[in-house]
Amino acid sequence: VLEGSASLISSSLQIAPGMPDEYRVMGLNYAQDPPSCIYGGTCTTPGANYIGVPSAVYAKRGHKSWYQGLRYSANNFCKPDPKAKQSYSTVAASVKAGITENSCSVDICPASDDVYGDLSLIDGKGEDHWGINSNGTCYPLWNVYTGAYLCDPDNTYWKCAQPRNATTTPKSNAMSQFNYQMDAISSNWPVHVGAYTDYVVYQVEWVTGKNGYVRWMLEGNPIFEVPAASIWDVPQNGNKTNPEKIMLEEPMYIIFNVALSSSWGATPPNPGKKCRGDGSDEETNKICDSFPLYLKIDYIRLYQDLADDLEADNYMHVGCDPKTHPTKKWIEAHIDEYQDDDNQHKDDAAEDWQVCEREMPVLVLVILGWSTVHNSNLQLFRFPWQQYLRRLVCFSSVAWSIIKENNAAAVLKKKGKSAVDLAMGSNLQDEARLEQVRYTTERGSYGNGHRQGHDIHHRPRDNYSQNFV
What we know:
The chain is an alpha+beta fold. The protein has a domain of 163 residues. Helix 7 crosses helix 8.
C-alpha cells in the first residue's frame, strides 16, 4: 500500500493472521493518557509509545516483539535540519546498551523510532546505515498504526471495531463468522514540496521467496524495506504462539485513485451540504476553491526480472492467475469469502451471453433483410433454427474478441515489448532501461520461463502456498 496525506506518505504490507497482544506495542493506561498521545510519542504509560521502548519494560516479556530488521532510509530531497542529524556510533551504542527513556529522541533511538530495525550499511556498501539520519533530512517513521481487527457484522467479540450488541441487534447472517487480527507493517515518510510541483518517480520492488523483500523507493533511493526474513522469522515465546507467515507471493493488482479519508483526519467543510455553506467563512471558501484535486501520472510501468539466476521460490510473473497460484480456482472454491448479500458474484461471461442473446433478434432480422421489426405477424423466432443462428452469432462474436486479443499479444511478443506498459510518456533513459531486461506477454506464463518443466522449482498446483493479503 502507498497512500498519503499532505506531506506524508505511508507504505505498508497488510498481513494476517496478525501477532497476538504479547508481541505488539503495549497498551495505554487510559486513566492517565489520551489516545492521541501515541502519535507524538508523549504517552506516560510505560512502553506505550514505541515498540521495544523502554528496553527493560519489553524485556520482561521474555522475547522480542513485533517485526525485526525492518529497513528505513532518508528522503534526501528534503531540506536538511542540523538538529535532526545522527551519528551511527552514538545511536548503535544506545540501542546496544538499552533504551531507558519512555520515548525516543535523536541521540538514543534510530531516526525511524524502531529500535528493532536494521542498522547495517545500506545494501552493504558506502557509509550510510539503515535507520540513521546522517544528513538530517526527512526520515520515515515507524507507524504507530499496526493493523485493524477484522470481524463479520454479527460478531460480538470485544476487539471488533463495532461489535454487535446481542441483546439489541439480531443477527444479519450476511456472511460466515470470522474475527482475526491484521498486521500493518508500515512506515510514514515525509515528501518534499517538489512532489507537488513536479513529477517524481515512486518505485516498488517486490521479490518473493525466503530471501525476498518489498522495497519502496523515491527517485531510485530506498525509503522503506521489509525483508522476507522479517515476515517468516518472527519472535516467539516458549510455546510458539506467534503465527508463522510467509513472504507475500499471491497475485495482486494495482489501484491508483484520489480520495479523502476520515482516517487521515480529512473532514470536508459542511458535510452533506454545499461546500461553501453560506459563503461567509473565508477559510472554508479557500478549502472549497482548491477542489477538484488531481493526481497527475506521467506513466505506470511494470518490470519483470527474467534473469537465469533467480532463486527457486522467486515466483516472478505478470498476470493475475499464474499456474503456481491458480487464483481463479481458489476463488471458485471459496466463493463465500468473496461475496455477501449485497455484493453477489457475477459471471461476466454469462452476463455477456445474456446481453448478446437479448440483442440478437434485431441483429438477425437485419442479417435476413427484414425491414419491419414491429410487424405483428412476424413469426421468425418460433422456429428452432433461428435460435441456433442467434447463438452462432453470439459465439462468433466472442470467438472474434478472443482472436483479436491473441493477435495483439503475439504482436507485442514479436516486438519484444514489456509485459505491461501503461506509459503515457517516455524518455530516452526509460527506453534504455527497457532494453536491459527481457519481458513476456503471455498472461499465464511463469515468470521464471527458463525453469519451465523443472518441477523442483515450482510447488504442486494442488498444494500451493497461501497467504492472507
